[in-house]
Design brief:
Three copies of one chain form a homotrimer. Chain A folds into two domains: 3-31 and 152-363, Naphthalene 1,2-dioxygenase Alpha Subunit, Chain A, domain 1; 46-145, Rieske [2Fe-2S] iron-sulphur domain (Rieske Iron-sulfur Protein), CATH 2.102.10. Chain A has six helices and 19 strands. Chain A has helices at 3-14, 175-183, 192-195, 227-233, 301-336, 346-358, and strands at 37-41, 49-55, 58-64, 71-74, 88-90, 93-95, 102-103, 109-111, 126-127, 129-132, 135-138, 162-167, 170-171, 197-208, 211-222, 247-254, 257-264, 271-279, 287-296. At the A-B interface, loops of A face helix 1 and helix 5 of B. Chains A, B, C: Keywords: 2Fe-2S, Iron, Iron-sulfur, Metal-binding, Oxidoreductase.
Amino acid sequence: MSQSTLEEADIVSSVSPEPQGHNADLRRIRSNPDYWYPVAWSHELKSGKTIGTRYAGQPIALVRPLDGSVFALEDRCAHRQVPLSLGRVSGEAVQCCYHGWAYGRSGRCIDVPYLGKNKLPNGVKTYPCREEGGLIFIFPGDPAKAETTPFPALGSVRDPAYKTRRFGKKVACHYSFMHENLMDMNHQFMHMKQMGQMKPRFLGGKDEPTLVEARYSFARTSGKQPWGEALIFGERRDASERYAHRDVMTIRTEYPYQTLRIATGDEPPVMDLWIVYVPQDAEEKTCRVFGLLSVRKPKVGVVLDMAWPFLVAFTERIFKEDRDIVELEQAAWNELGGDHNQEVFPVINTLRRLLARCGVPEEQDTTRPT
Amino acid sequence: MSQSTLEEADIVSSVSPEPQGHNADLRRIRSNPDYWYPVAWSHELKSGKTIGTRYAGQPIALVRPLDGSVFALEDRCAHRQVPLSLGRVSGEAVQCCYHGWAYGRSGRCIDVPYLGKNKLPNGVKTYPCREEGGLIFIFPGDPAKAETTPFPALGSVRDPAYKTRRFGKKVACHYSFMHENLMDMNHQFMHMKQMGQMKPRFLGGKDEPTLVEARYSFARTSGKQPWGEALIFGERRDASERYAHRDVMTIRTEYPYQTLRIATGDEPPVMDLWIVYVPQDAEEKTCRVFGLLSVRKPKVGVVLDMAWPFLVAFTERIFKEDRDIVELEQAAWNELGGDHNQEVFPVINTLRRLLARCGVPEEQDTTRPT
Amino acid sequence: MSQSTLEEADIVSSVSPEPQGHNADLRRIRSNPDYWYPVAWSHELKSGKTIGTRYAGQPIALVRPLDGSVFALEDRCAHRQVPLSLGRVSGEAVQCCYHGWAYGRSGRCIDVPYLGKNKLPNGVKTYPCREEGGLIFIFPGDPAKAETTPFPALGSVRDPAYKTRRFGKKVACHYSFMHENLMDMNHQFMHMKQMGQMKPRFLGGKDEPTLVEARYSFARTSGKQPWGEALIFGERRDASERYAHRDVMTIRTEYPYQTLRIATGDEPPVMDLWIVYVPQDAEEKTCRVFGLLSVRKPKVGVVLDMAWPFLVAFTERIFKEDRDIVELEQAAWNELGGDHNQEVFPVINTLRRLLARCGVPEEQDTTRPT
């Protein structure tokens, strides 16, 4: 029995088998809006300013008054639908750039410069809004559920033992391709030029109602350990069995977020990634990545600071390869008009069922304009 | 009662109220083709040459023979539909660049170099064509109506007491957004950086079958008078009430044209603008602006000539702000799939009814290819 | 009786008349896939490499192993539909760049690095593939017909008495516009700047089930003979009748290929062009040209070598004029939503019938995804 089938046996024992036939095309499943989603980095929104952002085709104006917390409005003036994010912040209100209509934190229209106060028109939609870990989150779904919906843990971003890289770009694909990409470590093959030849071993996983987990170890089969990796894991001088399969990588989709942790034995993780893929357009064929990549500081912390630019460049190269391939997957989907994925790795089929189950089927999505 | 409600009272007395609910989306109303529309500047078409232009998706070849007036043909050779405007002018005819088919002023095919004269195929459509005030006009509608349809007055372009700036660009919006933009002087708010803070006062208007008028005066509430404005109105040394509300601005939509005049008392206008927004594409979501901005020459005329470059730069900055905002209005319309305008200014609702009444509803428009 | 009607009489005697009304729009007729089509130049595909190409919207990976002939696969991995042409050639197989799935010459999946050999999934489609005359051909239709379908003769590319220029670009039009352009030599009018004024005389043609032929002679009516032409035909010192109509140009569409030969009397042709227009997108509104332009070497062969760059520049200028005009024809078709061609030259109507008869009507084309 080959190594690869052993790996399969591992996974089959821990995750349920794939039923024949999906009911819906996974790439048509909309993200579930009843979760907290980041829509901007804190540093993008200066005090006394407003910026425009998006969630699944909905334009959102984020406003940071000189005093008080950030708030989020529908980014269309009630008058002529032009973006409020082009307007001026004045006190705790934002004034549309065109005719000066003003909106407060509640979305109510509080002034039209040429109209009596008793005749003010309706205002605009608001979104529950929170700022944590350098990210601005909104709750795009039913506002009544915002308070009781758990806020994500954001990895190790608040732990001073870690240094965190904030990264992310827009990627022209459905968010599900991103989840599949990260969880299927057999795609290590694609990063061979960056990482050398690594053989992943699947160690098992978990299948829970809103969580799928996959655990892997790795053995270097040829090539040298790259700089970037040595920075994170410490140097392994050779590819001998002595070091192989020592570190365990745990990847989780805890809907709608994803995490990746690398740890040796019971030690705290050397790397802790929290990442989410936020749909941009109404069809959710583009997403914006918000990633928090936390690396455990070594004893001599300055080493990590000095090496940081190399680590940034290394992760950018990896991320570019991933972005290119998932965009090609989306392009093939567009051309074929549907999902022709022929998945053979059980944990990915488990993940696909999770994403389909937790998301919103196209036909049931009544929250968007038709 | 506040100032703004007083203004409203003024307008309510002069224009009729807005009925509940439109029957058609204003942005789907096509421009009425039974009017004279400019399609090019005279200087664009050299003698013995031909150029291509557009009206609402219809390609038009303008031809200026060495002798005789400009004429206008459908810009598609009857043979293979390539643009005649790429051809050669030969006498009073234009010859298609591909196989040399030739068409005269009447649109008739008068020569195919490799065919007997008795076998000549059908020709192409023509448009009534006139050249006035540095503009080339066509009559895109029923040619039988061309003669009896009044030709527009073109402001003060022919009056030697004025110097005229010809300007215009393509703007990616339905022409109705342009009419609304100019007539609602509350959008002065948007030009604050260029003009300083100005408070408009609505003085009343007119509501006639093919005309809507709005009159305003202004008071500077802060900031200095800009250069460009001083050139047109003469310098007002301070923002005191002494100068406030002295000049009257009269804006008219006289379908399908628009004018804006600024005058003090019974004196001739210091500024006289004639402007029209000519649909370019078949869906009329892009228009080309043709504007004639006439400024009354001061006693020492050379002052205006010297200041002209500054006036050009000033008006370009204003026009850019207007263009950006109306294109955002169109973009919002595209995204929402319809008009969500929530108008509170009665004269604009009056204008909207005029444009809807005088234009051609989408479903009745049988003149365009389906 | 004029010259042009004489020419018509000639053609009427040799080709059948145009029946009233086509059943289908020629620009909606798909190319018949049961022929050999080139999809790449040999020099584009290095040994041990793979490249991606297209036939009518079908992505094709061409693979050149270090040993053995080129083969052609569907350019989508069976797993996640990403291009195999981005993968690595390993022995006689190509390995997908993403997760390393490997495919052999037969299209069968022969390895998934993390799966047992007894569980390998289905592979991908293959195309019969041949390499001749510096071109890589595939047979996109029914593979059972590949062996018995005649392979094209490729003009004089293999004859050492000729020097051949390989040329071609993508052109944004249906292939039928290209056939019509080349066969209707009345379009000489368009190349007047490059060639001077030339009067074509139609000498007759042929109308066979899969072939249409047109023969022409030419007389220079004004202007000087251009360099490029003199290189091909030899210098004609004046435009006198002595040289007029001496050379005969024979243009054939022998479905789906086209040829153009110029010869004087019974001598071998001075120029022999073989050309084909391969549809790129699924709607066949873009084609890629593959042309083999063979010029007979003069007694002192080095003259042709020295003059070659001038000949290349001359033919590029001609080809650019042709490309621009056929793209305008396609643009007019797109705008009008159909073919409004009003053809008066009988041989072109004969050609149109041939292309319609040999191609595949849109509705019968069941081989493409809907």
